[in-house]
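quick one before i forget lol
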Amino acid sequence: MNLKISGHSDDIVCVEGDLTEEFYPSEDQTFFVAVSDGTLLRVSYDGMWNIRVLINGTDTTIVHEPATDEDTNYSDVVTLTSEWDVEWVVGGAGIILK
């Protein structure tokens, strides 16, 4: 598996790599991205895209590159790699964490 998750503009969460998708979270809404390996990410936008790893998937290496500037590097980038194939990626706002 090779996936890169990042924010684009002020309204798109991009997934690139073995699967490609764009999600459009509602304004000022915390958004979650889940991956078939068990990875769970929280994504929010406050002028810069913030991506936090809530759960690290099974046998997955995660590299987090933080955003540094609102104009030129305005999105965290999270890269997931694993020897396993990714089966699905889902995004949404409705989640309950224990």
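fyi The radius of gyration is 13 Å.
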